[in-house]
Automatic annotation (TrEMBL):
PANTHER family: DNA POLYMERASE III SUBUNIT EPSILON. One of its GO terms (biological process) is DNA replication proofreading. One of its GO terms (molecular function) is DNA binding. DNA polymerase III is a complex, multichain enzyme responsible for most of the replicative synthesis in bacteria. The epsilon subunit contain the editing function and is a proofreading 3'-5' exonuclease. One of its GO terms (cellular component) is cytosol. InterPro entries: DnaQ, Ribonucl_H, RNaseH-like_sf, RNaseH_sf. Gene3D superfamilies: Ribonuclease H-like superfamily/Ribonuclease H (3.30.420.10). Pfam families: RNase_T. This is Uncharacterized protein. DNA polymerase III contains a core (composed of alpha, epsilon and theta chains) that associates with a tau subunit. This core dimerizes to form the POLIII' complex. PolIII' associates with the gamma complex (composed of gamma, delta, delta', psi and chi chains) and with the beta chain to form the complete DNA polymerase III complex.
Length: 435
């Protein structure tokens, strides 16, 4: 696989590194007793896959039935394969002093070291990177980071899950994808590969005041899906926050504010549904000036075709339902909030039907707390509270759920959830399109 990279200082930094991506298939997870039955390795040099090697290994023990089903590797497949002692030096030579990469280094590296120890050889001293952990840093709130799902959302080839070379190739392609992102995001230190947190998240980007405005405006104008822009001054004081569907009229207003407000930090964040941007903005709303509060509400009404005269700006109204379900930015994920205590800390991110029991439990638990008066209401500013109500009345990309007197069951949610999913496909193209 060859990836197109732009030649920059970040490119030069990563271009100089050599990686060995590897994967083990074993008879089980016990380092002391289980054995390797297959190893796959791929070498990445100059940001390209340049070599690969794999071995079936005779473990000299019976492969458990569930491992045979998982890997499709049977005892007969490894009967004539070499034992680990005869190929270990060839494996170590291939690894060399490369940076080792696996999709779960917390398993693969210790397991391999236990084999080396048993063979009387020194343990690996190579630095190692876990693409699974890297995923969790770069795509916050992702519920599943297994190799099958990552291959799906990044369009990577992955034909035979739980076969060493196929898993290794998929991990190598994922690593190359991440390396291209690091280059795009201007990585400056190799150490950031091992702990890419608070700088390389794919759903957000922070610009300090000294970043040229031209590039920031180009980024804003390039966005076609919902996003949130927030401007902060000294000591993190919020000066302005506005969600956008990604439309030209909203961008023009946001750009006008970006040019006029003397900020210290500008943050762009992809939100997935527009409602998510509204919710995050609402947590900043009371921190901006009274004048800007009124202007913001009027602009939100204008952008969403709501007559501002119909939004009572003084007296908070009651939410039209108890819960709201929306798409998540990440494919195949959804999020639910209790509308009468609307706050991001009370969200549940879920997949359906995988987490249907968890979803039902969440609704019933929060409903019981509401009925008992034990759930503290989030005191939204009346203006943003009433705008949200007006927005929800005309929204087509949300699912409102009314609390039942009796406990909700899986069957109660099945039809409305499935109807919502069919009518609201996730079209944010994340993480292909990232910040």
């Amino acid at each position: 696989m060859t990836t197109n990279f732009s030649k920059t200082p970040s490119y030069d930094l990563l271009h100089s590194l050599t990686f060995c991506v590897f994967d083990l298939e074993t008879t089980g997870g016990n380092h002391q007793h289980d054995k390797i039955i297959e190893i796959g390795m791929v070498r990445i040099k100059n940001l390209q896959i340049v070599d690969q090697k794999s071995f079936l290994i005779n473990p000299e023990v019976h492969i458990p039935e569930f491992i045979q089903k998982l890997t499709t590797i049977k005892d007969t497949d490894v009967a004539d394969a070499p034992v680990i002692e005869t190929v270990i030096d060839e494996i170590l030579e291939f690894m060399g002093d490369s940076i080792l990469v696996a999709h779960n280094t917390s398993f693969d590296v210790p397991f391999f070291n236990s084999v080396l120890k048993r063979l009387g050889k020194p343990e690996l001293q190579n630095k190692s990177i876990c693409t699974n952990l890297m995923t969790k840093y770069m795509i916050p709130n992702i519920l599943s980071s297994n190799l099958n799902y990552m291959s799906k959302i990044f369009d990577l080839k992955h034909q035979k899950a739980h076969r060493a070379l196929d898993d290794t190739m998929a991990s190598a392609e994922l690593l190359l994808k991440y390396l291209s992102i690091f280059i795009h995001k201007k990585i400056a230190k190799v150490n950031s590969l091992y702990y890419p947190k608070n700088k390389f998240e794919l759903d957000r980007i922070n610009y300090k005041k000294d970043v040229p405005l031209e590039g920031i405006l180009e980024q804003i104008n390039s966005l076609t899906t919902p996003f949130l822009v927030t401007l902060k001054g000294q000591e993190g004081v919020v000066l302005f926050s506005m969600p956008s569907h990604g439309r030209a009229d909203e961008k023009a207003y946001i750009i006008e504010k970006v040019k006029k407000i003397p900020y210290e930090m500008l943050t762009l964040k992809l939100t997935g549904p527009y409602f998510q941007g509204l919710l995050e903005m609402s947590s900043y709303f009371s921190k901006i000036s009274d004048e800007l509060e009124i202007e913001t509400i009027k602009k939100l009404c204008e952008f969403n075709g709501i007559d501002s005269k119909t939004v009572d700006l003084q007296h908070p109204q009651e939410m039209p339902a108890d819960f709201i379900v929306v798409n998540h930015l990440i494919p195949e994920q959804y999020v639910i909030y209790p509308l009468r205590a609307l706050h991001q800390k009370l969200e549940l991110v879920f997949r359906y039907p995988t987490h249907q029991n968890k979803l039902v439990q969440y609704i019933n638990s929060k409903s019981a707390r509401m009925a008992q008066g034990k759930m503290k209401k989030d005191h939204l500013n009346p203006m943003i509270n009433n705008f949200l109500i007006a927005y929800l009345k005309g929204s087509r990309d949300t699912l409102l759920i009314q609390r039942q007197n009796a406990k909700i069951t899986n069957q109660d949610l099945k039809d409305p959830i499935e109807k919502f999913m069919s009518e609201n496909p996730n079209d944010y193209d994340f993480p292909h399109k990232y910040l």
